Amino acid sequence: MLNDSTLEFSQARLKLKDSLRFEMRQSGNIVTWICEDEVTGRFFRVGVPQYTFLTMLDGRRTVSTALMKTATLLREHAIDETEAANVVKWAIESGLVETETGNSAARRDEQHQQLKKQQLVSWLNPMMVRIPLFDPDQLIERATKIFGSLVSPVGLAIWLVVVIVGFFQLLMHWDEFYVNRVNSFSSTDIIWIVLTSLVLKLIHELAHGVVCKKYGGRVKSCGILILLLIPMPFVDVTSSWRFPSKWQRILTAAAGMLSEVFLAAIACMVWVSSGPGPLQYHAGNVIITATLLTLLFNINPLMRFDGYYMLSDWLEIPNLSTHGRQWLKGASKRLFFGNKPSPVKETGFRSFVVKAYGVLAMMWFFSIAIGLSIGASSMMEGFGLLIAMIGLLMWVGIPVWKLAKYVVNGTDTEKPNRKWFATASAITMACLVGFLVLCPAPSVVSAPVVVDFDPLSIVRAKASGFVEKIHVADGQQVKKGDVLVTLDNPELKLELKSLLIDVRISKIRSQALLTRQRLGEVLLEQDSLDSMQQRRVELEEQIANLSITAPESGIVLARDLPTEEGKYFSLGDEVLSIGSREEIHAIALTRQDDIEWVEQNPDVDIELRIWGRSENETIAGNIKRINPRARDDLPHEAFAATAGGPLAVVPRQQVEDSAEEGDMKLTEPRVPLEIALSDSDRKDLLPGQSGQLVIRSRDQNMGTYIAQNFVRFVKKNNMRTHGF
């Protein structure tokens, strides 16, 4: 009698599982059959020849007999022996058929133990745990009676109007929203974002259930999906695969996102119409959560969330992810073991989509696995690092263990070619080592840069007064001694005028006392006169200083000067600045991660790319000075995102009570570098121009570069989060 490990294809007696349910679908002239496994909830799509062949497998006929019976019925449209073998192999791997021994008690017990083992492994993965709770069908039924009428053309019209109006209002106030909510986001906002996300996801999943119920589906279960220790609700609407219209299935998958976008549009109106306070704050959280997080996760088709099901429905490829993984697995076995791959059951464009999806989904899987592991290790001291290690073991360790078992033992239906595997592995390792050793590293240090004066001469008021007249403009060339601004101080002038009268009176009084020979009183009057004369000199000097002159030749820097006419300046207040073109240099704000390498290579060549010039036109420079420490203030306002620069800033008043109004703080401290320029470049450049600094280094290979950056990242992350 045959068993799974010695399966002879032509004489095998296979039987379709009793839990399978088939339904015909027609799209244009193409007829297909949807196969649903009512036990596992999985769906499959097969063509008419494959469906006919599978239905012949009743446990009594051999595969050869079933193939002949199919050929009799379909004639030229029947499948051949090669395709039949592939269909049988796929059906066994997908759990759609049973062998003669597959119905035995021992085999069923083995399958049950294997299922329990898979469930245990999924529960041990702390990154993503799915916990079913209860059957919500009756609850969804009640919600459908209330909100089901919105699933209609009228509901679509309401949705469009609210979304267009809401996001248009946000667009009109985008700069304000970006500065006050997006750019000022901090770690203290995370807890509110999580709570907001939890409420929105409840509404999100309720919308899935309502639309599914509206079209006649059944919501079999609901529960909690714990992603990186963050609980999120879920509902099971897989019954939507039974809907005859793919647009009904797509709308069921999209309902959650549509509801969140609708709430985000309402939050936009609330944010615009309300002033600073709790209401505006939480409205901003709803906008961020319902748009950014939804777009990153739900609409992403590479994760098995809403976007994936919408894509598979639109393409009419059930189990797109499974087919993509099976193709990628077969291609990998062909490459590393020499096995003949199973052909993709889809044809034409759908075949390309399945293959592309398999590759992209695997790349995304590794990216998200690494990202979640890093996120877990950074969130919680000690415990987070343990979670990251367990997650990597589940995602990477177990597949490696399965690969090792396959190399040693193979599977029930195929045996590995170990010589081929050894040769392919050796070639792959040689290519990898060659890449790491021979390929130069992209060791490029880049940083935003702004052209500025060094040193900058600050012109301050030497006397208090109101601006009477401004004689210069921003960017104007002036010479030493030129009048820049004229101030007016009527009190000083009135005091001087009154003092001059007092001086004249004092002189007359002193002369009269001298005539009467009252020498003692003369001396007292003379002392008073000397004091008044000294005060007179001070007042005349202050009045003279009301005309502010240039201390040196250069260019005037005073962007807001035209608006300051009539403004009052106290003694010592900054009026404007003057810079010399011969002293122009560039300031770059470098990441702290790069400064160690820069300090070790101070003589390295520097390229400056100034925005507004040709991409191929670069300016050479040299490091003049490296600031000894990182700083969070702005050496020039052109660095700030609020002024069109590349660096994120927040108002310093949000984090420091004693900060001055309008003072901005970098969200990530940077290390300033001063770059010396050539004489010709100083003549061509203007203060305030911005660009990018680029330092290239090709003195290390790719392997060293990756290793050093990985070790540096681990050290920095562990020191910050775990203290070691």
Structure description:
The strands form seven sheets. Strands 9-18-23-20-19-24 form a six-stranded antiparallel barrel. Strands 10-17-15-12 form a four-stranded antiparallel beta sheet, with no helix packed on it. The protein is elongated, with a radius of gyration of 39 Å. With 724 residues, it is an alpha+beta fold. It is built from 20 helices and 24 strands. The longest helix is centred in the middle third of the chain and has 32 residues, at 348-379. Helix 6 packs parallel to helix 9 and helix 9 runs antiparallel to helix 10. 50% of the residues lie in helices and 18% in strands.
Arithmetic mean pLDDT: 80
Total helix count?
A: 20
Indicate the overall shape: elongated
- The N- to C-terminal Cα distance equals 62 Å
Rg computed from alpha carbons, rounded to a whole number of angstroms? 39 Å
- Strands of the largest sheet, in order across it? 9-18-23-20-19-24
Could you describe the largest sheet, including whether it forms a barrel? 6 strands, antiparallel, barrel
Poorly predicted spans: 1-7, 720-724
Tally of individual domains: 5
Helix content: 40-55%
Sheet-strand content, in percent, reads 15-25%
Structural class category: alpha+beta
Number of beta-strand segments = 24
